[in-house]
Amino acid sequence: MSRGFGRSAGAPTLEDVARAAGVSRATVSRVVNGVRNVDPVIQDAVRRAVAATGYAPNRAARSLVTRRAETIALVVSGADDDSPSASTAFAGRTVTDPFFGRVVTGVVQFLRPRSMHPVLMFAESPADRDHVVSYLRQGSADGALVVSNHADDPLPAQLAAAGLPAVVFARPALPVPLSCVDLDHREGARLAAEHLLALGRARPVTITGPTALPAVQERLGGFRDTMARHGVTAVPVAEGGFSQESGEAAMARLLARHPDLDAVFAANDVMAQGACHVLRDRGRRIPEDVAVIGFDDGPVAASCRPALTTVRQPVEDMAAEMARLLQGHIEHPDRPATTVVFAPRLVLRESA
Amino acid sequence: MSRGFGRSAGAPTLEDVARAAGVSRATVSRVVNGVRNVDPVIQDAVRRAVAATGYAPNRAARSLVTRRAETIALVVSGADDDSPSASTAFAGRTVTDPFFGRVVTGVVQFLRPRSMHPVLMFAESPADRDHVVSYLRQGSADGALVVSNHADDPLPAQLAAAGLPAVVFARPALPVPLSCVDLDHREGARLAAEHLLALGRARPVTITGPTALPAVQERLGGFRDTMARHGVTAVPVAEGGFSQESGEAAMARLLARHPDLDAVFAANDVMAQGACHVLRDRGRRIPEDVAVIGFDDGPVAASCRPALTTVRQPVEDMAAEMARLLQGHIEHPDRPATTVVFAPRLVLRESA
DNA sequence: GGATAGCCGGAGAGCGCTCTCCCATTCTCC
DNA sequence: GGAGAATGGGAGAGCGCTCTCCGGCTATCC
Predict the structure, then answer these.
(1) Which end of chain A, N or C, is surrounded by fewer C-beta atoms within 10 Å?
(2) pLDDT band at B79 (very low <50, low <70, confident <90, very high)
(3) How far off is chain B from A228, nearest CA to CA, in Å?
(4) pLDDT confidence of residue B96
(5) pLDDT category, B184, cuts 50, 70, 90?
(6) End-to-end alpha-carbon separation of chain B, Å?
(7) CA distance linking residue A240 with residue A247, whole number of Å
(8) Could you tell me if residue B265 is left (phi over 0), alpha (psi between -120 and 50 degrees) or otherwise beta?
(9) Strands A345-347 and A309-312
């Protein structure tokens, strides 16, 4: 931390290091960035000068000329605009949701070795979305990773229209010329259905998420189709909102209409957990009386009782892939958008 | 999005706007930043030109001259250096931990109205910490918010030594000249103890976190002292590691040694939940046979069964206060470090 | 009416860096 | 040994912005 040189009061600059090493600014820059060959002797002198002055390259100055922020935005987006309370409900749900943590983990996994760090942004209103767009247009970040919880989130389209590099998690409702990562939801649902069938369950019900989401549709379709293929033609459905309470409510409705149900497939773990609570309160044993399968395999799945049998979504890998795709789009602006689909896996625990 | 002007291929610059509006660069800058009086007529022309060109000020250029990044770093820090597996264990634990989400929520609450966004960083190794320090020294962020999960995390001291603005969550083990926010842990433990005493419990046990943490010490001390003051002199203790498994293991040990226990005070909700599982597995009813009190009041507390009675830590408020303090330090570098202590609150649910 | 103050716009100097030229030196090969 | 190629360092022009200074203008006051 010894300064000594930088008589210019502030932090030492390239100029200071150059003077200390007795070379030009350009040479120091070359050594610092490891570009072009530089005489080992001079390299050494420069490195010593860097250490002596405690030099740290100024990021703003570098960005100004390279036109790269070396930063990406991680945008959590999509609360309903016209619902006044949506804003807080959403923030509460998603940021505290372990799903969010898993996304962060995956993104950081990819970014860290590259010494990059995500900027966290939340887009819940039209103003927020404009802000995200202008943030990128200002060059504060080179691209965006978007996680919407709303099927018709307009942000991806805005980003695409502005020609900004972006990758989205889960295919948006209306096609957008952006790369995205997604899960094979139909396959996940098929896995769940076949497991329940193998268990001999013949009166399954399902708790879906908001049916506007394509992913929700696919899970439902996959489940129904598989069941139908095995002769189970009618699968009662209740729609939930991904929250535990909504799962409880949905379960209660299903139980009232179909007291003889023997299996539940919920569109996420949290609702599955809610369903378990209700089932237990009504004296049903899990999995003996009712088998329950969730979706996601978030941290709750393993820690709740009974531990949840669930369809694992490799969120961390998917998030890391988003980052990788984004990097590709940033470095090669003309690269066409692609969709990477991940395979789900059934994780067997206690509930089914 | 109509461009039209910027013949300079890239994004429109101040220069482009100035030309379009028929004024000087300085005037455009003044209008954009709302500094000094500018003739309303000219202001209007400038605004029109801004809209017409689709101008967005370049952040790097601005930062270069203002010496402000208008960005702060949110650093999650503290895995044990010498334990090879600590890195992943930590990342998994903390990022997925709802606690982290609550911190983010609080920080964003403060930052958002100011159009700022946190950069997420993880510091688990000495190299990571050096990286955080140099990131700040590069001017990539104006200051850091540090959340350590390790009592003797060296990062705060490094930051302080480098003279960088930083605020830490929870007082570090060894005093560091940085502002911090903390909870009155003794008071929280007292609240829990008195509630158990009021319930008529006389054979309480407690599951602590890693005893190296000052907060853990205070919770334990506060619990013991309050109990002692009411005649309960011996409180069996088992140390946990804040994870559910560690809570389960601790509970099992306590149960083996003190089968007649009638109350458990756990140092966090997750361990309390683990304790509940073990107690139930051993046939103990909660709260009839054993009353359980957790700490934190994270999202799990309300959603697990039985819903947890717990000591609420206002994490969001604390995190927002961190951001506020940091802003103060950034704007007034000479402001002395302060500690803001928050009051806990007992939240009554089913478990006690 | 002239001197002084106040207001507002423009000119221009950088902020710290990268990167393209350019030039000096050494190497290579006939 | 001399022409050509390669190698490695320096000079200097900006990147897009802010901000100080300056100058021209109008308002104010004796």
Answers:
(1) N
(2) low
(3) 34
(4) 66
(5) very high
(6) 60
(7) 6
(8) beta
(9) antiparallel
> Is the pLDDT assigned to residue B314 strictly greater than 90?
yes
Q: Are B267 and B188 in contact (CB under 8 A)?
A: no
Predicted local confidence at residue B274, as pLDDT: 93
Phi, psi of B76 (to 5 degrees): -100, 120
Q: A190 CB contacts (<8 Å, ≥6 apart)? A: A222, A223, A225, A226
Q: Tell me the HSE value of B20 on the side-chain side, using a 13 A CA sphere.
A: 25
Domains defined for chain A, CATH in brackets: 14-57 (1.10.260.40), 72-183+315-342 (3.40.50.2300), 185-312 (3.40.50.2300)
Which chain B residue shows the shortest CA-CA distance from A92? B105
List the A263-266 sheet strands across, edge first. Answer: A237-239, A204-208, A263-266, A291-296, A309-312, A345-347
- pTM, two decimals, is 0.89
Q: Which of B303, B308, B315 to mutate to test the interface with A (most CBs of A within 10 A)?
A: B303
Is residue B5 pLDDT above 60, yes or no? no
Contact (Cβ atoms closer than 8 angstroms) between residue B181 and residue B339 = yes
pLDDT in the model for residue B87: 30
| Chain B 35-64 residues in 7 Å CB range of strand C | 36-39, 42, 61, 64
Listed in sequence order, the DSSP H helices in A67-154 are 86-96, 98-111, 126-137
The token pair at B52 is 């017409």
* Sheet-wide strand order for B309-312: B237-239, B204-208, B263-266, B291-296, B309-312, B345-347
Distance B245 CA to C6 C1' (A): 73
List of B residues 211-270 with CB within 7 A of strand C: none
C-alpha closest to that of A71 among A338, A334, A326, A321: A326
Contacts of B57 (CB under 8 A, 6+ apart): A138, B14, B32
10-residue averages of pLDDT along chain A (352 residues): 43 91 91 87 91 93 94 84 34 63 92 93 92 94 91 91 94 90 97 97 95 88 96 94 91 96 95 94 95 92 90 96 96 94 96 94
Give CA–CA dist A326/A166, Å, rounded: 6
Residues B183 and B313: beta-carbon distance below 8 Å: yes
pLDDT at B9 exceeding the cut of 90: no
Mutation site for A-interface testing, chosen from B17, B120, B133, B159 by largest number of A Cβ within 10 Å: B120
A143-148/A179-183 β-pairing: unpaired
Residue of A nearest to B57 (CA): A138
Q: Phi and psi for A306 in degrees, rounded to 5?
A: -70, 150
pLDDT tier for residue B8 given thresholds of 50, 70 and 90: very low
Q: Where does the pLDDT of residue B28 fall: very low under 50, low under 70, confident under 90, or very high at 90 and above?
A: very high
Reply yes or no on whether the pLDDT at B198 is more than 50.
Answer: yes
